[in-house]
Design a protein that fits this description.
The complex is a heterodimer.
Chain A (H helix, E strand, L loop, with lengths): L1 E5 L11 H15 L3 E6 L8 E4 L2 E5 L6 H12 L6 E6 L6 H4 L5 E5 L6 H5 L2 H17 L6 E3 L2 H8 L6 E3 L19 E5 L8 H11 L7 E5 L5 H7 L4 E5 L3 H10 L2 E4 L8 H8 L4 E4 L4 H7 L3 E3 L3 H17 L13 H18 L6
Parallel strand pairs in A: 1-2, 1-5, 2-4, 5-6, 6-7, 7-8, 9-10, 9-12, 10-11, 12-13, 13-14
Antiparallel strand pairs in A: 3-4
Chain B lengths: L5 E7 L6 H9 L6 E7 L6 H8 L3 E4 L4 H11 L4 E4 L4 E3 L3 H11 L3 E5 L2 E6 L1 H13 L10 E3 H6 L11 H11 L3 E4 L4 E7 L2 H21 L4 H5 L7 H6 L1 H26 L12
Parallel strand pairs in B: 1-2, 1-4, 2-3, 6-9, 7-10
Antiparallel strand pairs in B: 4-8, 5-10, 6-8
Helix pairs in contact in B: 1-2, 5-11, 8-11
Classes of the chains: A alpha/beta, B alpha/beta.
């Protein structure tokens, strides 16, 4: 099958994250299975406009804001009749490919909706415009479309905008070998994410401050780089180590040595860090927010109200048990192998194509 | 050692948004002998499936209103202690253990109050959080929700003629029965979602009908409604002037709703609950 994937950025992009890993893991497996896959993404400085990566072709045009128009232009010149199916990957700003690709079936994929994250990432007027005017309009453009998602939370979020035809795919995860380490002597919490406001590292610091009144030797490791690093270092109370970016081995070891992993993001598509921790034998206490809810349930963790005082109470009341009862590592941390993910997505696309009347193609 | 079972009974109706976190918090109690019975009033969403996926022991389908659902759940549960939870609540992990400790170490206690805090999004919800924080420790507003089974059965369970103020009604009756009510420290967190003034008015108007019935049945019932506790912690109010004025607005709208509902009841008009709520 000839497959075109439209996405805002590819794995070579400096800001590539979980969504790009997902796309890349699927496309390379599809290519290995014999599909002819083309990935269209924004240009990356120092990388060619076109190259082969892991068996699939990457076409790069346009920038952060112009990649959407560039896709349309490129398709008009090179795309007609060249593909059997187009996958429209939506990361907040959509390609709306079904509105301008009429000769080939288009199926969409939403990693997550942005919603309240607008307020963390943009100045107020832009955030209000984005959250209440632009994004609802963008999502509603997919009302009558088939949309793939990776979590029930994203399916629920889309349903609020009238997008009801969703297919929930598994989240993928490549487990690492569990390091042979002991749990810490002191009660220990680990947190790992980029230090940006919507991940809410400041809530963990606040919860630690409250929890230490009950557990004076509580130890907290905050791992990750980002714009809030200096501020957090200045304000962190005793017992809270703001470690900044740590190398992968150190990260895995600390995750395995902690008694509990906490996650406080306002919204995720899935929340893979929760699966990572569970696969290393560390359970999670997470804020009950979209995405984290899904990964934490799958990883047999605990959900708590998104308030530092609640997080502190959950930590204090759970710690005796977390220290005395071992938590067995969960295979794939409650997520799935990438082979399974690639297979499920291929199956969803086939199913979708089967539903499209022949005369529409 | 065989420790007693704590039965949690949760009535639901179209509670898909909140039920998973609610049931998970019960399943993850730092105490092993916990029984979770969800009584679903024919939800049209997937509340029942989500409750089971989150770890409920049983989901019973029964109606017609939440008092009847709670009584049904109590009858079908087995624990020595019965706790009634709403589907939009999340329990701290120590609640079950604290309930057992309190009942075992204080044989004279027949029922327990569990303190509550609210959380949710938006300005009106923040006003509600402030309001609820003022009630903690105020016996005219708080009502028992954990009972020794024999005490709960002795007073005949929930009053199925009420759909609002039923918690005060039960609390009043068990106290009249001579039961001593204690309290624990761990909190229940109440998910208010995103409050809207108009929705609040409609909901209170619906509940107002039963408030009239509650007042008819209890001579001193009005002390509950007046919520004098709002002025007991003045320092908290002064610290949050904006939220306080919002809270005054919110309470005024609610009072107007309840008044409208009581008038509806007295004139035999039946209001319809806007939106779904268990």
């Amino acid at each position: 099958m000839r497959i075109l994937v439209l996405t805002w950025r590819d794995l070579a992009h400096e800001a590539a994250g979980g969504a790009e890993v997902y796309t890349e893991q699927v496309t390379r497996r599809w290519a290995a299975a014999g599909h002819e896959v083309t990935l269209f993404a924004a240009a990356v400085p120092g990388r060619p406009d076109e190259e082969m990566v892991d068996g699939y072709r990457v076409v790069r045009r346009g920038g952060k804001l112009t990649v959407y128009r560039a896709a349309r232009k490129w398709y008009a010149a090179n795309g007609h009749g060249q593909f059997d199916v187009v996958i429209d990957m939506v990361n907040t700003v959509p390609f709306r490919a079904h509105q301008w690709i009429k000769d080939t079936p288009v199926i969409a994929f939403f990693h997550q909706t942005a919603e309240e994250c607008w307020h963390f990432n943009a100045p107020l007027p832009v955030a209000v415009l984005g959250r209440y005017v632009l994004e609802p309009r963008w999502i509603k453009a997919y009302r009558d479309r088939t949309v793939m998602v990776v979590s029930q939370s994203t399916a629920d979020a889309l349903a609020r905008f009238g997008v009801n035809n969703t297919v929930i795919l598994p989240e993928g995860f490549e487990p690492v070998a569990v390091p042979q380490v002991q749990k810490e002597e002191k009660p220990t919490i680990v947190w790992c994410a980029r230090l940006v406001p919507y991940k809410r590292p400041q809530d963990v610091v606040e919860a630690a401050r409250i929890a230490r009144e009950q557990i004076p030797d509580l130890q907290v490791w905050i791992m990750g780089g980002g714009p809030m690093l200096e501020e957090l270092r200045k304000t962190a109370p005793a017992g809270v180590d703001i470690l900044g970016r740590v190398d992968e081995n150190d990260k895995i070891e600390r995750m395995a040595r902690a008694h509990v992993h906490v996650a406080t993001s306002a919204r995720e598509g899935w929340g893979l860090v929760v699966s990572e921790a569970a696969a290393l034998g560390t359970p999670t206490i997470a804020y009950n927010t979209p995405g984290l809810k899904d990964s934490t349930m799958a990883a047999q963790g605990q959900l708590c109200p998104p308030e530092p005082a609640a997080l502190a109470a959950f930590i204090v009341e759970s710690m005796p048990r977390l220290q005395s009862e071992p938590f067995a590592p969960i295979p794939y941390g409650g997520a799935h192998s990438w082979d399974e993910v690639a297979g499920s997505m291929e199956w969803a696309v086939m199913e979708f194509l089967g539903r499209v009347p022949a005369d529409a193609i | 050692m065989n420790r007693p079972t704590v039965s949690f009974v949760v009535p639901t109706r179209n509670s898909a948004r909140t039920i998973s976190a609610c049931v998970m918090s019960l399943r993850n109690q730092a105490y092993d002998n916990v029984e979770i019975v969800v009584v679903d009033n024919e939800s049209t969403d997937d509340t029942a499936q989500r409750a089971l996926a989150a770890g409920a022991d049983r989901v019973i389908i029964a109606g017609p209103e939440r008092c009847a659902q709670r009584n049904r759940g109590a009858r079908e549960s087995t624990g020595a202690f019965v706790v009634f939870i709403d589907s939009d609540m999340v329990m701290e992990p120590a609640i079950a253990a604290q309930i057992v400790d309190a009942f075992e170490s204080h044989p004279h206690l027949g029922a327990l109050i569990i303190p509550e805090q609210s959380f949710g999004d938006g300005f009106w919800t923040k006003c509600r959080v402030l309001e609820k924080s003022l009630y903690v420790g105020n016996e005219s507003v708080e009502a028992a929700r954990a009972f020794r089974r024999e005490v709960f059965e002795a007073v005949g369970g929930w009053n199925e003629n009420l759909t609002a103020a039923e918690d005060w009604d039960l609390d009043d009756r068990i106290r009249a029965h001579g039961t001593i009510v204690g309290r624990i420290d761990a909190f229940i967190w109440h998910d208010e979602g995103k409050l809207r003034l108009r929705g609040t008015f409609g909901k209170k108007r619906y509940y107002g009908q039963w408030i009239a019935a509650y007042l008819d049945a209890h001579d001193d019932g009005a002390r509950r409604i007046r919520r004098s506790g709002l002025l007991d912690k003045k320092a908290d109010l002064l610290r949050h002037p904006l939220l306080t004025s919002g809270m005054v607005t919110l309470k005024s709208v609610e009072a107007a709703g309840i008044y409208a509902g009581m008038r509806d009841a007295r004139s035999n008009r039946i209001a319809v609950l806007p939106g779904a709520r268990s």
